[in-house]
Write a structure and sequence with these properties.
Blueprint (H helix, E strand, L loop, with lengths): L1 H23 L3 H30 L6 H22 L4 H33 L5 H34 L5 H13 L4 H15 L5 E6 L5 E4 L3 H8 L1 H9 L5 E2 H6 L9 H13 L4 E6 L4 E7 L10 H89 L5 H32 L8 E4 H18 L3 E5 L6 E4 L1 H17 L5 E9 L2 E8 L6 H4 L18 E2 L2 E2 L9 H11 L3 E7 L3 E9 L23
Parallel strand pairs: 7-9
Antiparallel strand pairs: 1-2, 1-5, 3-4, 4-5, 6-8, 9-10, 10-14, 11-12, 13-14
Helix pairs in contact: 1-2, 2-3, 4-5, 6-7, 6-12, 7-12, 9-11, 12-13, 13-17, 14-15, 15-17
Length: about 625
Amino acid sequence: MYYNIHIPLFFLASFFILFLKLGQTNNFREKKQITTLLLGSIITSTVGMTTNLILPTMRVFDLNWVGQITTVVWVLFIFYAIFRYGLFEIRFILARLMYFTLGSLIVIVIYYGVVIFQTAIYGSPLNPSTLLLGIPISLGFIYIYDLYKKSVSEKVSSLILNPGWDPKDVLIKFNEDVSVLLNYEEIILLLKLTIRQTLNPLDFVIYIELDNGQKYFEPKEYSHKLPKSFEGLFVWWKEIEYKPIQVEEVELEFPEDFLDKKNEVLQVIEEMKANNMQIIIPIFNSERMLGIVMLSRKDSGLIYTSWQKKFLQSLCSTTALGLQRANLYQEVKDFNKSLQEKIKAATYEIEEKNKKLAESLRIERDMLDILGHELRTPITTVRNLLGMIKIMWDKRVLDDTKMETYIEMANESIRREISLLETILASAKIDNEKLELSKEKVDVFDVVNDSFIAYQQMADSKGIKLIKELPNERTYCLADRLRLQQVIDNLVSNAIKYTKYGTVTIRVYKDGENVTFSVIDTGEGISEEDMKHLGEKFFRAKNYVVTNAKIGDRQIIRPGGTGIGLYVVYQLVKYMNGKIDVKSKVGEGSTFSVTLPEYKDKSSQSIFPQCSEVSQIQAF
């Protein structure tokens, strides 16, 4: 009667647990496993309880052998679930068998040990004293059995189920290792080693594509093969939102959650089988897919169980977090590097600007000193000449010849002073964009003759022959008469000033629709380095800056000039729509050529552009 109640209740409880598990799981394979177990258990229990439990109560014992056969049927269902749906691996069966055997062994040993002890001491295990002693023994047994069961579970898992590793320990260790890695390749290598040491597939592929476009492959030999051979796989897999896929599961029965994407899933399966892969797992972060892990069959030839699939998904999730952290670290590192480079470049730029500013201030200060000297000299000369005239007049020793000489010297000093002031004023107007030029018909002969006469005495005083070469016919150019005279005067003055001996030639010739003025000297010449800076404000060629020095075997002439004469010349020529060309060779002399448009009768008498309007004119 006891068995008639106990056994049905046992089966009902088992069925309830299996039905509950079936309703809770969303895994296709687990559903098939539980369904097979339920079907086998229902058939076995129904037939077995009928022939071996219900009929014997009616004194019918002839069909007991049928109940025994149903046990064989149940075992067949178990084997079918194992090989068809991967219910258990052989290792799992052995592990569970050893676990329950060892677990029950300690219970039996302790039970009979206590009974033998109580019988030997108290004569019976049911003595009141033994019942009281059973309380502390029971408490101790619970504590000892819990430790024993935990120890047996760990040992069985490490020795049989997962030889050499435990999933929980591996995941904890993997999380710890990934959390301290900040290098992509090190994280990928750790994932590779973990997969190899645990699941041990025959082949596998790890593919990572980062935000910056970098791609990583493991094994390395796939670096050229992967993009081509798996291109179709990625296209179809994207259509099903990169969900994990296991070939065996889909081949058993098509999953319900993939029914709306059946064609896409079948395409992915086809691509995986073409590459001998059995399972594919995505590596996701919060925003996008970073990569994939694909595994072939295991070395043992068995399929991947559901917990192994979950184990692989956990590895991929941790890997995604590690890659995201490494990516953030790399971004910060790159930003810091970029920031340092920008700071370095900005610092260098500021330093260079400070150097140039300091140099400009020094040059300007020196030029102001020189300018003050240049301005004082003519005035001092005139003052001294007037003083000499007064003294000689008072002493009645001033004759007409001396008077004429002193007046000519005073006039020359005044002319120099006026020329220098005009240059300074022109420079100021140019800098402030206030310079206006009149476009008019200019007689070239008049300009050359005025310069020739003005600097004839200066050339004669140095023993330099001043020459002018003009066209056979009267020539006119389109320019500002006053500013053109200032340009030619400045060039002739410089040529005479920096020529120790020889000639200075003022040559004019027509060049197509242009008129060219050339001032040619036989002076010391200008170096190639200084030629690059001609026309810059306050620049003076080194030939005329350093004293008591030589260029090669030639003596350098003493300092002279303000450094603004040529600057004004270059600007005035540019504003008159002309160009200036310089040719020079150290030791042989220099040629400054100014080219301006030839005057045409149809040329208008309008005003040249102001400085602000000609800022876009190309400097020559």
